[in-house]
Amino acid sequence: MMNANESVLDDRGVPCAFFERDERDGTPWADEITCAPGYSTDIAAATVVRALAGWCGTAEGAFGSTLLDAGAQRLRAFHTYTLPLPRPEPEPQLPAGLRAVPAAEVRPAALHEALLAAYPPNHPDHDDDALQALDGLYDGTLIGPMLPCSTVALDGERAVAVVLVQDYEGEPPLGGPWISEVFRQPGPAYAGMGTLLLRRVIARASTSGLTTLGLAVTETNPAQAVYERLGFTRTATWTKMAFPGNSFDPSTVEQ
Question: What is the pLDDT along the chain (255 residues), one digit of tens a residue?
């Protein structure tokens, strides 16, 4: 059973696990599930899977694997990264014909073409609700207010690359200034634009007084190599999972 203090209790009423309560699209979520200190991870995992039937959640490292062994269904794995921002440096220039503007000056709808092209159905970060999520990033309702260093690269009036940064609740490495989106129009014409715009945003973030940037990337996404070349350091590996039960269908949850 669960109580209001975001814990899972065993049959004796003893907390065996803790989590942060949330809700997404009507589905209850248990974020950052951890085993109670000194408690058997196997017993805690089995209790969590029963108690959170019909929920989804995330757990770090070995406890995430133990939850899967206990019956949770894996949705995806992802890594979190952090970057201590360097001293302010000049912002790199974009290629001739392109210009960078603050994301707040560009309507979310103007980014739809690039977003849908960047994340087709076979992409590891494809999201059926990506356009709705973009609106939530812009208005700050998804994970926090959009920060001024968020930038869009335009070719004429066409958005071709985007980096959005949010003020994510909490402290680094899992909170604070957070890169919520990085995407570009695919194809050779804009090759390298994602990395170049990231470098520009990093410079703008540092100049504005921010001290860190965090992000998360799906385990199978080759963009990990780009982030590591830019100096981001992996802080943790997480499993996003569903807890089947109560007629709950995990396939309906965005992965």
Answer: 444 468 999 999 999 999 999 888 788 999 999 999 999 999 999 999 999 999 999 999 999 999 999 999 999 999 999 999 988 889 999 999 999 999 999 999 999 999 999 999 988 888 888 999 999 999 999 889 999 999 999 999 999 999 999 999 878 777 899 999 999 999 999 999 999 999 999 999 999 999 999 999 999 999 999 999 999 999 999 999 999 985 444 444 444
| pTM for the predicted model, two decimal places | 0.87
Together in a domain, 61 and 19? yes
- How far lies 219's CA from each of 50, 67, 80, 177, 234, in Å? 27, 18, 10, 21, 11
Q: Coil, strand, or helix at residue 222?
A: coil
Residue 123 in any domain: the answer is yes
Find where tokens 């979310």 sit.
108
Domain of 242?
Answer: 2-78+238-252
Q: 173 preceded by cis ω (within 30°)?
A: yes
Q: Which residues pair with 81 in a beta bridge?
A: 215, 234
Q: Is residue 164 domain-shared with residue 73, that is, in the same domain? A: no
- Cα dihedral 244, 125, 129, 160 in deg (nearest 10): 180
Please tell me whether residues 73 and 94 are part of one structural domain.
no
Same domain, yes or no, for 11 and 64?
yes
